[in-house]
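Input.
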Amino acid sequence: MIDNLSIYILCGGKSARMGSEKGLVVYNDKTFVEHIIHAVQPLSDSIHLVTSNDAYETYGYPLIPDVVPGKGPVGGIYTALRHSSSSWNLILSCDVPLITTEVLKKHLFKEEQKKPITFLSDGSKDSPLIGLYSRRLRGHFEQAIRKKYLKLSDLISLLPHEVVVVDQEETATLQNINSQKDLNRLL
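Output.
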């Protein structure tokens, strides 16, 4: 377990490209959210699902509805940071079912953690929704929502951050499964 860490899985979103609730899509006999929960359980007991969809109650973790609905990932992260009492918050989207405990521990939890945002990349595609966010950033995310500055990558570019490139053999673990086509490729 990692001290002073809360975990938030962002289960919101319109899931327009998938055609159904992404976190509840089944892969290898488990939903995407179950795969992610399995990967994060060894890291912290403080696990939350950012959603207002009661279908997620079955997992037994607190459901945290968006403070300001309809603001995408920026709104989801703001909700997490506002809810959290931990210094550090692992934020994950619900569409990364291949993520592993090992990849998270190896690349995100280093002693020399200094930047308020650290997230993973495969070297060509960044994954800001597989990242550590300092609770101190709550005001920045709140201000972004007020100003309707909702593109996560643009907001992050204005804040101190570190991008950690995973090893070549680990790149598949960062894969977003956003559409039926992505899911078919995965299956």
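The chain has six helices and nine strands.
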